[in-house]
């Protein structure tokens, strides 16, 4: 009997529907040749849900996601909803899905394909292949915040006026569970883990550092080191190929993973996985946003979404062969010179062909059958 995979698809806004349908097409083709059945159910979130229900994350979407084995998300947001009340902004759907599904670990691989070395803004990027493990449901994005009025004055006499504050807090439990994911991942890779923090200033960072150092004794084979966030931002540019697994807090991970996206050339190429509580579905999505500037024009690069589907097959369904089939088909497509606009570069000569979302998706599917 063939294996069944129940996937909730949340296309979202902007280019979300184009790239998720590309990923599902590729996934269905790859699964078919490995005797695996893909069942999908489409759900609304973000601006699309605001238009229909007046809120960005309807209960039906949370329940539908919970009932699935895994969620494939496009992206949410866009200028149409920029002026809605803060409480119902499209991005609220992301926070709601992450906390609703208990997704506390965001795993973002950053790989430079040989074919796309010209895409990296770095002169000699070397062999870049690292993963950022970002804590996703704690820290400053979820801490106490607010605004209050103060009658006090600054040292030069200026009235303070309103004071806005956000709070960073982390519990030992929150830190230890994400550290364990990072150490375990390092064991499966090149056995190197870097903790990024700001332990010279922040109390929370000092707790991260103490707990990580302690846990490193349980993983004697893993080479463990620590970097301050400001230094890490520089080192990622100067020696990106030396990193293997990086683990960090929600805020620092948010910033560093966008830097990683730029290092590898285009955010359109990068997949991600969010996982957490055992027994609840994981969520898979490209790292980019809804790209409203190119939505509906057949210009979006679907490879980040297609590679997210491959990650899902490997991490949730244990379908290593399907994941590798998809990844190899993407490499073959790039080797054949097919490029969407975001990965087309001056100086590549006549060896590349500019194509649209649909054409590059079809090429990946055609290359799947060659892989098998
Ligand atoms: P963005 O990632 O959507 O776009 C940045 C630039 O990269 C744009 O020029 C865009 O055309 C290009 N780009 C992005 N993905 C691409 C792809 N697959 N192929 C080709 N080009 C691509 O970031 P932004 O412009 O800052 O945000 C647009 C909207 O997306 C905002 O509403 C923002 O809040 C939202 N957003 C959502 C998510 C998410 O859903 N996870 C993440 C980031 C931003």
Overview of this structure, please?
This protein has 372 residues and is α/β, with parallel strands linked by helices. It has a domain at 1-103 and 271-372: Isopropylmalate Dehydrogenase (3-Layer(aba) Sandwich). It contains 11 helices and 14 strands. The strands form 3 sheets. It has a 10-stranded mixed sheet, sandwiched between helices. The protein is globular, with a radius of gyration of 21 Å. The model has no long low-confidence stretch (mean pLDDT 94). The chain binds nicotinamide-adenine-dinucleotide (NAD).
- In terms of DSSP E residues, the strand content is 15-25%
Q: Could you tell me the CATH topology label of the domain at 1-103 and 271-372.
A: Isopropylmalate Dehydrogenase
CATH superfamily of the domain at 1-103 and 271-372: Isopropylmalate Dehydrogenase
Helix/strand order:
EHEHHEHEEEEHEHEHEHEEHHEEH
What is the number of E strands? 14
**So what's the CATH class of the domain at 1-103 and 271-372?**
Alpha Beta
* Alpha carbon gap, first and last residue: 21 Å
Question: Structural class of the secondary elements?
Answer: alpha/beta
Unreliable runs, pLDDT <50, ≥5 residues? none
Radius of gyration: 21 Å
CATH architecture of the domain at 1-103 and 271-372: 3-Layer(aba) Sandwich
Tally the helices.
11
